[in-house]
């Protein structure tokens, strides 16, 4: 014996022979959707499957074969299909509209995520800095958790340096090596995704290390975006720092009420730095402020990254 049924919630409409002796057909009317269909023996063994395979539905979906005095399992289709495609036309249209909105939202998120991945991986690579990252007779170079330490002959002054945006941190190794050889030990900091915006507190990590607590004077410096982030951090922790060095950069934080000594350096041929912003930032500077222009210099020459 076989049973014929659909997944839709409906009523039984007929029970009779199907032209083959010993076979009875159960029909259940679908509302608004084309059901998945199969013929199934009354004892539960599938006989013929039409369209697609069935998925489980609750046991309550079974129906009785009265002429045969036996119980057949109705066609089992997953509840997910019914939730997504069952019901009235109006309800289905609402669900389809919501599905389209969610699909568009997910697509936008994927595009944004792909753009972010591309952006953070498209950065300026250091060029020709191998020797600056090696120790020599004047400077000992060593790694620490977030970058490199350049330990020269000086014992009293230390400088923490923030790299420019999307520039590999090691591009500033030559500058740090020279400063250390001149008597100012330097800590060149690596930034997450090469953006100082995501590591503005890295200076605190350097200062908190016990191995670096013997210096009398601490200075903070940075190039481009790194300088702006260094200034922002220094403005909130001015009492812990003696000075700030801005390379092709300017401060958006108000430092006028601090005792910091600030030095601003930029190249005369810098085509990246916004000079108007530099002029506007002067009113935010403390009393001890010095601004110098390097003749012939450009934006990238503070580092070694080939541009």
Describe what you observe in this structure:
This protein has 307 residues and is an alpha/beta fold. It folds into 2 domains: 2-84, no CATH class; 131-302, Alpha/Beta hydrolase fold, catalytic domain (Rossmann fold, 3-Layer(aba) Sandwich). It is built from 6 helices and 15 strands. The longest helix is centred in the middle third of the chain and has 33 residues, at 89-121.
Features:
single chain; 307 residues; alpha/beta; Rossmann fold; 2 domains; eight-stranded mixed sheet; three-stranded antiparallel sheet; 6 helices; 24% helix
Distance between the termini: 82 Å
Share of helical residues: 10-25%
Reported for the largest beta sheet, the result is: 8 strands, mixed
CATH class descriptor of the largest domain: Alpha Beta
Fold-level CATH name of the largest domain: Rossmann fold
Order of helices and strands: EEEEEEEHHEEEHEHEHEEHE
Number of strands: 15
Integer tally of domains: 2
Beta strand %: 25-35%
- Please mark out the parts with pLDDT under 50 across 5 or more consecutive residues, or reply none: 1-77
**So, the CATH homologous superfamily of the largest domain?**
Alpha/Beta hydrolase fold, catalytic domain
- Please tally the helical runs, counting DSSP H or I stretches of 4 or more residues: 6
């Amino acid at each position: 014996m076989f049973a014929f049924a659909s997944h839709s919630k409906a009523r039984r409409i007929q029970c009779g022979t199907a032209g083959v002796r010993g076979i009875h057909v159960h029909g259940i009317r679908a509302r608004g959707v084309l059901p998945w269909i199969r013929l199934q023996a009354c004892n539960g063994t599938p006989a013929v499957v039409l369209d697609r395979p069935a998925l489980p539905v609750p046991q309550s979906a079974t129906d009785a074969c009265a002429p045969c005095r036996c119980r057949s399992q109705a066609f089992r289709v997953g509840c997910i299909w019914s939730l997504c495609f069952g019901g009235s036309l109006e309800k289905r249209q609402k669900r389809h509209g919501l599905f389209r909105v969610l699909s568009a939202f997910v697509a936008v998120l994927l595009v944004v995520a792909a753009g972010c991945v591309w952006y953070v991986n498209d950065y300026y690579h250091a060029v020709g800095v191998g020797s600056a990252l090696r120790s020599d007779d004047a400077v000992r170079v060593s790694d620490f958790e977030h970058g490199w330490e350049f330990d020269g002959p000086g014992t009293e002054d230390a400088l923490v340096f923030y790299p420019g945006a999307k520039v590999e941190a090691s591009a500033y190794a030559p500058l740090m090596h020279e400063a250390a050889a001149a008597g100012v030990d330097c800590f060149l900091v690596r930034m997450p995704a090469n953006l100082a915006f995501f590591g503005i507190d890295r200076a605190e990590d350097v200062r908190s290390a016990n191995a670096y607590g013997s210096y009398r004077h601490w200075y903070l410096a940075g190039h481009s975006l790194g300088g702006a982030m260094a200034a922002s951090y220094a403005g909130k922790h001015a009492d812990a720092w003696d000075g700030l060095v801005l390379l092709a950069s300017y401060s958006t934080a108000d430092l006028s009420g601090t005792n910091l000594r600030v030095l601003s350096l930029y190249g005369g041929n810098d085509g990246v730095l916004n000079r108007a912003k530099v002029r506007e930032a002067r009113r935010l500077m403390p009393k001890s402020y010095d601004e110098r222009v390097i003749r012939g210099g450009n934006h990238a020459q503070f580092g070694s990254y080939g541009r």
